[in-house]
Fold this sequence. Notes:
CATH architecture of the largest domain: 3-Layer(aba) Sandwich
Oligomer: single chain
CATH topology of the largest domain: Beta-lactamase
Amino acid sequence: MPTSSQRTQPPRRLLPVISLAATLAASFTLSPSANAAYTAADLADTLAMGEARIKAGNGHAAQELCTRVYVSGDWATRVRVEYVWPTIQPLGLVQAVDMDWRNSVTAQLPVWPFYSRTAIYRAGLGCTVVPPGTSVSAVRDQAFRPAATLPAIAAPWPAGEYPAETGLLPAPVAETVARQGDRLFEETRLNPSLHQNTTAYLVAKDGHLVFERYGPGINRSHPQPGWSMTKSLTGLIAGLMATDGLIRLEDPVGLPQWTTDSQKARITWRHLLNNAAGLKWSEEYEGVSDTGEMLYSRPNQGNWAANRPWDPEAAAPGAKFNYSTGFVNIAMLRMKQLLGNDHQTLYDYYQRRLFAPLGIRHGVIEPDAGGTPVGGARGLLRPVDWLRLGQLVMQHGNWNGAQLISGDYMSNALAPSPAAARYGFYIWRKTGNPATEVAVFKDIAPRLPDDTIWFQGFMGQYVVMSPGHNLVVVRMGASHDKNETMRRVMTAFAEIHESLQH
């Protein structure tokens, strides 16, 4: 939760951002003024980014500040200076941010307000970017009833909320786990654009939480954005619907706008879950891309993604792997339609069928302005609950003796996609073949268990699992060197696995 100083309503316009030191000294020094220390050259560099990147940068800043401050309880200056600025430069040098406490965040260029983006906060739903042309009041008026907060059960994880059982590990293993944590939190470079900004590191072994560490000012109660780990969560929700007979993997997805398109009408749930739908898509979080346009400038994200043209390089649905946040948003949109085309019904469904049985408290998938959960990017759960999802996957969909997700679906979800051996149903996997392994950690891959699988998200979010060894590691944060983060996480997993074999 926010600190007492952060709960105070801040002024709408604040002191100029002059330096990093000045910014860190005051909790809400967020908006430049006429005296701010940026130059005409800075402004020129920003405008040279182009309209699409400026809009995406403003949208990213507004949503990150809204979610991480109002929901996750992080510090506003840290979020802006350490998490957001390095991602959107040079825009951060001239960007003005207005924070209306627990209501909204608006990011814009001081003299070009038509490039602005606003994210609004709604209790129980998190934050939603409201693009221009969409009414803030209309989004706020969308009917919503949050799920009742689950009681904190006095029991060890995963059933309850007891602290980590650190004494369960042999001393040499415990030392390895702690040492790898030090490495994950360590900052070895002065340049903030290369910082790791680790916020959480957790380890579970044999169904027990054995290690838990958080960054300064962060604790277990703070939900963290999983970014593309939300894809894996969406795949699990699809698994629930398959288990309940609401979808079948070989059936066409059946979006209404696809029925008259001969190519799109052939896209099945399997194709969509393998991220091999066959639509044209550019996936990029730090430049001009379909992803930035969709997340920050489109009110109905899944619908916009579904209308993307066919990829001429895809011979047929399922033939070409194309990693896409848009394809996952299409899946979430169609699941919403199958449940009556009502956000409340879909929200209640995943809360009742998945979150409640696992004891996930305060979890949500933030919706777009049209009221559809952003299944490709906006899952917001406590790290200890992301860990629970990893444990569920390792247990092949079984929880406390109940088969929440059918074993058949889980087998399909963890199997290699025909289009990409390193991918299943929105879950990454070790291939064992250097030719198809993820390039960044090819040298580390031989040290990982053969059955290693993982969720992965923007800015270094990871849930890494080995079902055969009943081991799960979670790392969360706001990394600006994603390759270094992946190497550190996979090295940690390998080191812990190897220490357990001795």
